[in-house]
Amino acid sequence: MFASLPLTALRAFESASRLLSFKAAARELSVTPTAVSHQIRSLETWLGVPLFERLPRQVRLTACGERLFHSLHGALLDVAHSVDSLRPQRSAGHLTVSTTPAFAALWLVPRLGRFYAAHPDINVRLDTQCEVVDLQQDASIDLVIRYSLEDYLNLHNLCLFDECFAVYGAPEQVAQASTQVPTLISVRWHNSKLYALGWQAWCERAGEPWLLPSRPMREYDEEHYALQAAIAGQGLVLASNILVSESVASGLLVPYKPQVSVDGAGYSALCVPGRERHPPVRAFFQWLREEARLSGHSSKIR
C-alpha cells in the first residue's frame, strides 16, 4: 500500500513547509539546500501539482501545498509519538506552551500545580515572549494561548474564555471611590485595539466623571504590573475578569460597581492540526477545558 510513497521527499517537504525555507530545512535534515530542492521538485513532478511558489529570497506554499502539509505534519507527528512510546525507559513528556507574561503569571501558573498533580510525567516549559509565534514554522512550540479578536481557521482551536473588563481595587480604595475621585491605573498594550478607549467606555456606562485632563493615568506595560499597583492601594485598575480572578478570590482586589463592564476579546488554545493528538498536548488541552469550566468563565463558543 505504501511502497510507492516517496518518503524521503515527503519528509523534506514537511520540513521546508514548516520552516518556509529550503535552506532551514536542509540544516534540520543535515543535507544540502540543493538536495532539499531536488526532493521537492521530484515530489511535485510525482504529484503533478506545484507545492511552492518560488519568490525572491523566500518560498510560499500553494493551496495544494497547504493541504498536503496539514495532513502530512499531523501524520508524521503521530508516527514520531508512536515510535517514542515504544522506547524503553523513555524520559518524561515535554510540553512547550507560548503565552503572554500576564496570562502566565496571573492565570496559568497559579493553577499549574493541578496539572502536575494529574500528570507528574509531563514537564511544562513556558515561553512568554510577547512576539506572536508562527506555529507553522516553529516546531519547538507545542501550543499557544492567545488573546485576540481573530479566528484561526488553519489551526486546531479550543476557545477558553468569554472575557469582560471591569474596575477593581484594594478594598479601602474601592470604599473611598464613592466619595473622592480615585487614581486610575491603565495598561499600555502592544495591541492597542484590544484596550483602546476601555476606561472611557466604562466611565460612560458607570456614569463616573473620572476622565479629566488634569488627572493623568498611571500606565504600565503589562497587566500583572497594573494589578500589583492596584493591590498596593495605588488606585483603581480596569482589568480582565480572567486575569484578576485569583486576586479577587483571595480578597486582595474587589470590584467597584461590579454590574458595569465592557466587552473584551477571547482566549484560545491553539496548535498545528494533528498535534492535538500528541499525548502531552491532548492532556493539556483537556486540563485547560476543565479549568475554564471550573473558573465559571468558559467560552460559550465551541
Structure report:
The protein has about 300 residues and is α/β, with parallel strands linked by helices. The chain folds into three domains: about 5-85, Winged helix-like DNA-binding domain superfamily/Winged helix DNA-binding domain (Arc Repressor Mutant, subunit A, Orthogonal Bundle); about 95-155 and about 275-295, D-Maltodextrin-Binding Protein, domain 2 (3-Layer(aba) Sandwich); about 165-265, Periplasmic binding protein-like II (D-Maltodextrin-Binding Protein, domain 2, 3-Layer(aba) Sandwich), CATH 3.40.190.10. The protein is built from ten helices and eleven strands. The strands form two sheets. Strands 3, 4, 5, 6, 7, 8, 9, 10 and 11 form a nine-stranded mixed sheet that branches. Strands 1-2 form a two-stranded antiparallel sheet. A hairpin with a 2-residue loop joins strand 1 and strand 2.
Oligomerization: single chain
What number is the mean pLDDT? 86
CATH class term of the largest domain: Alpha Beta
Helix content: 40-55%
Ranges where pLDDT stays below 50 over 5 or more residues in a row are none
Total count of helical runs of at least 4 residues? 10
SSE sequence, one letter per element = HHHEEHEHEEEHEHEHEHEEH
- What is the name of the CATH architecture of the largest domain? 3-Layer(aba) Sandwich
Features:
302 residues, 3 domains, Arc Repressor Mutant, subunit A, D-Maltodextrin-Binding Protein, domain 2, two-stranded antiparallel sheet, 22% strand, 9-stranded mixed sheet, alpha/beta, 41% helix, 10 helices
